[in-house]
Amino acid sequence: MIVDSSALAEQVVGDVIASAFDSAGQRCSALRVLCLQDDVADRVLTMLKGALHELDIGRTDRLAVDVGPVITADAKGIIEKHVETMRGIGAKVEQIALPPATAEGTFVPPTIIELKQLSDLKREVFGPVLHVLRYRRDDLDRLIDDINATGYGLTFGLHTRLDETIAHVTSRVKAGNLYVNCNIIGAVVGVQPFGGRGLSGTGPKAGGPLYLGRLVTTPPVPPQHSSVHTDPILLDFAKWLDSKGLRTQAQDARETGSQSALGLTTELAGPVGELNLYALHPRGKILLVPQTADGLYRQLAAVFATGNAAVVDTASGLKEALASLPATVAARVSFTADWRMDVPFAGALIEGEADRVRTVSKQIAALPGPLVLVQAASTAELSKNPDAYCLNWLLEEVSTSVNTAAAGGNASLMSIG
Fold first, then answer.
1. Domain stop point among 164, 186, 208
2. What confidence score (pLDDT) does residue 411 get?
3. Number of folded domains in the chain?
4. Quick one: which of 59, 147, 351, 380 could link to 295 by a disulfide (CB 3.0–4.6 Å)?
5. By the 8 A CB rule, do 319 and 335 touch?
6. Do residues 109 and 178 both lie within one domain?
7. Is residue 228 very low, low, confident or very high in pLDDT (cuts 50, 70, 90)?
8. How far apart (Å, rounded) are the C-alpha atoms in residues 232 and 254?
9. CA of 173: how far to CAs of 197, 199, 272, 395, in Å?
10. What is the pLDDT of residue 410?
11. Do 178 and 242 lie in a common domain?
12. Is the predicted pLDDT of residue 287 greater than 70, yes or no?
């Protein structure tokens, strides 16, 4: 979670305490790193530490208890070892004193640790431990880059009253669920479809419009595309195919573009005072492993239709098939002889029969980084079916939830009644 100097400190504290310590921090969506702008860090930290010491830890069959035990003795040991390691590198540590009632059981005191840099945190600590990092406003973009560079992207929070900051940060951070001026736990099915990106996500969002479609042959309620515009790179690619006399391939590319939901943004139903948006973004770099020129053109059409970049396996021997690409299109295409040099990939498209697909899939599975969603089609299938590759699987789902009442009021509330 990033908090800037314009944020309402009282609201920040309430949302941070809930996000970091509810369920003893044992939620996949729980807040692990809080980034405070230097100008307000001391004040917010003082308030947070005060709120921390108001928490009641104990057996959760008592309604007055705020924080219960962690799940196992092993988990308790891992968390305690982490806290001691942080002390050992000179980090400031603030903890609640455990009451006598917690003498038996796997209780870990809610803890705040002040980091000097994000790289001090080597792994996720699954428990009631909040790490705090200070940043300067001028270094905001560098901070976002550091967060993205971790490779993890499940939940992200932002507290600010500046619309420009909301737009800037949410457009750059790579996370599946974004929360603005609210806590980052407790996603509601159908309101905040839940799922991450990169190392934090392997499939469609739970409670989202693409989820059920992964379990059946025909998606029951496909996303609507009426407000979506075709990526201009795809149109340039289709024109290039036309110029090469490949009119059928050009038409197929345009048809692929018309089926893409790239850029779809829709508002989901939710409570008054909250704005919930669902959007489909490009996934990133897609590895292409073609066998034929036509197969490569089909793969590129799918990649460009979804706003992604293509990394083509040079072992395909098809580099010459793209020798005269226009500069706009060529900027989205690269070639690789060593796939490990280009990881992480956000997806892969393979052309070939079962044995080849099996061999290539094993090579992809052995790559470092996040799991790669592989799609495969035979040359014959590609020639008959323009939809051989599922475009929705090449798009990233992003849910954004905004507390519209947090930044000084919600004009829509005035129209009620």
1. 186
2. 45
3. 2
4. 351
5. yes
6. yes
7. low
8. 11
9. 11, 14, 26, 16
10. 47
11. no
12. yes
Cis peptide before 344 (omega within 30 of 0): yes
pTM for this model (two decimals)? 0.91
State whether 159 and 256 are in the same domain: no
416 or 300, higher pLDDT? 300
CATH of the domain at 334: 3.40.605.10
Residue 113: pLDDT over 90? yes
Is 34 part of a structural domain of the chain? yes
For the range 359-362, what are the long-range contacts, defined as Cβ-Cβ under 8 Å and sequence gap of 24 or more? 360/289
Q: Are residues 243 and 383 in the same domain?
A: yes
Look at residues 47, 45, 127 and name the one whose alpha carbon lies nearest to residue 92: 45
pLDDT tens per residue, range 125-178 = 999 999 999 999 999 999 999 999 999 999 999 999 999 999 999 999 999 999
Closest CA to 128 of 103, 98, 160: 98
Where does residue 219 rank: exposed (0-12), middle (13-18), buried (19+ CB within 10 A)?
middle
Residue 204 lies in a domain: no
Distance CA 2, CA 47 (A): 16
Q: How far apart are the first and last CA of the chain?
A: 36
Residue 153 shares a structural domain with residue 240: no
Q: What is the pLDDT of residue 209?
A: 84
Query: Which amino acid appears at position 206 of this protein?
Result: A
Which candidate, 113, 118, 147, places its Cα nearest to that of 128? 113
Three-class DSSP labels, 309-336: EEEEEHHHCCHHHHCCCCHHHHCCEEEE
> What pLDDT, on the 0 to 100 scale, is given for residue 414?
46
Locate 172 and state its tokens. 């750059």
Bridge partners for 399 per DSSP: 177, 278
Instruction: Report the pLDDT value the prediction gives residue 148, as an integer from 0 to 100.
Output: 95
Share above pLDDT 90 across residues of the chain, in percent, rounded to a whole number: 81
Domain of 47, CATH number, reads: 3.40.309.10
The reported pLDDT for the residue numbered 221 is 55
Q: Identify whether the C-beta of residue 305 lies closer than 8 Å to the C-beta of residue 234.
A: yes
**Inside any domain, residue 212:** no
Q: What is the pLDDT of residue 263?
A: 87
Residue 253 and residue 178 share a domain: no
Domain range holding 371?
Answer: 232-262+282-396
